[in-house]
Amino acid sequence: MPELVFFSGTMDCGKSTLALQIQHNRSARGLQGMIYTRDDREGEGKLSSRLGLATEAIEVADDLDFYTHVVQALTAGGRVDYVIADEAQFLTPPQVDQLARVVDDLEVDVFAFGITTDFRSKLFPGSQRLVELADRVEVLQVEALCWCGARATHNARTVGGQMVVEGAQVVVGDVNRLGNEVGYEVLCRRHHRRRMTAARARAAALSPDVLPVD
User: Fold this and answer.
1) What is the tens place of the pLDDT at every residue in 48-79?
2) Most exposed residue of 25, 64, 153, 158, measured as fewest CB within 10 angstroms of its CB?
3) What is the pTM of this model?
4) Is residue 209 one of the residues assigned to a domain?
5) Considering the domain boundaries, does residue 206 fall inside one?
6) What phi and psi values does residue 106 have, to the nearest 5 degrees?
7) Which residues are part of a known binding site for ATP?
8) Are residues 81 and 110 in the same domain?
């Protein structure tokens, strides 16, 4: 039976790599799919992995209707065996409902990939709706690590290495950004609560207050 599957995890957990692997495995067996993404780090119309892999994708806007889009492709004589939706946390709840309808009414597998919570540890609306509707929710097994070595469970937004907890929910950035750019870092719950980023931890370690005194 076709399924709506939500693959979720923190940033840096390999979700886009898995999306590309699923696309490769199915296309290698002659299956044809439609690939969607939104606000990918490589720019519009791209699904990319930090490992350097990438493929073309359909850029999703708020007004895109997934069900109508897939039906139009089928009506035009196309073949759709599966749908991949990356950066699914940015989808609107109605768009997640449309993906569920693609599964139920068109009998097409849908694989959605996204992070669950934002930099404030609040659920993204798209991720929340996926958790509510998905046939399966798969937590990705490639564990991202906090700077302390513990399992990373939270996404932190940083500016100049300093964690921020206010601002718009969606601001495009990536891990390991330098200077005053908006970036993101994965942290364990303890260090997310303490707002202790890797940069702040290094600064604390170098502080004269903690250096040994002869």
Assistant:
1) 776 667 788 999 999 999 999 999 999 999 99
2) 25
3) 0.74
4) no
5) no
6) -105, -10
7) 9-16, 86-89
8) yes
